[in-house]
């Protein structure tokens, strides 16, 4: 049970999904059983549980996590930020503001240097433990924080080499490519996402966004730019107008079905109210 719980927390961190109720339930079990330990994963889990506890209003659980983190990382701005989140969740807004101001008063150049040092240390670690997907994911997220998108894309490609059937990694790569502007490559990756995880909302949402954007380019008479990977190589596949239109319709239909299922108590698509159907259809139409 303990190993399964730790694995579940790691998977949620990888996917970057917000599942505060599940995370706090797992966290309460791990803390009560004393199973977290002092591994590197344990400190990530403490932080993850603390944030989830703030989201769910379980302030005491959040405080327990921060106490453990403060013992391990005294004076850490990252832990200080968690204290601010706890005060926010406790409705102590002046106290939270004071902490955030204290963080902001820290010399910005020091923060930048800390990030640069962190990237260097992560790269050193990866040189030794090349097949550690969590390290690659952390480096990818750090590059994204620094808005270094080509470097983040390279990290995502390494993740895909190591775990080609992980739909979360395909999703991350697709979102990075969309941000960079490599829309065709992003579309290919979003299609891979829904191939691996049926009815995954973010996958179909991405398909519709990409296909709509490519159709708009075609309608405007622009020549579609081929997608490229982090090495600057063009993607092999292109999408004609007929294919893109079919993808838009497919994505919209699947999103409607998934949302209908989630919004009805008995998971019956036909039970969705006319109002909810109208709202969803209007929202999907306005996505383009």
UniProtKB/TrEMBL annotation:
Q: How does it sit in the membrane?
A: Peripheral membrane protein
> Which residues does the UniProt record annotate as the domain EMC2 TPR-like?
81-177
Single GO cellular component annotation?
EMC complex
Which InterPro entries does the protein's record reference? EMC2-like, TPR-like_helical_dom_sf, TPR_EMC2, TPR_rpt
> Where does this polypeptide localize?
Endoplasmic reticulum membrane
Pfam families hit by this protein: TPR_EMC2 (PF22890)
Q: Which residues form the signal peptide?
A: none
Taxonomically, the superkingdom here is Eukaryota
Which controlled-vocabulary keywords does the entry list? Endoplasmic reticulum, Membrane, Repeat, TPR repeat
> Which family is this sequence assigned to?
Belongs to the EMC2 family.
Q: How does it assemble?
A: Component of the ER membrane protein complex (EMC).
State the function annotated in the UniProt record.
Part of the endoplasmic reticulum membrane protein complex (EMC) that enables the energy-independent insertion into endoplasmic reticulum membranes of newly synthesized membrane proteins.
- What name appears for this protein in its UniProt entry? ER membrane protein complex subunit 2
Q: What is the lineage of its organism?
A: Eukaryota, Fungi, Fungi incertae sedis, Zoopagomycota, Kickxellomycotina
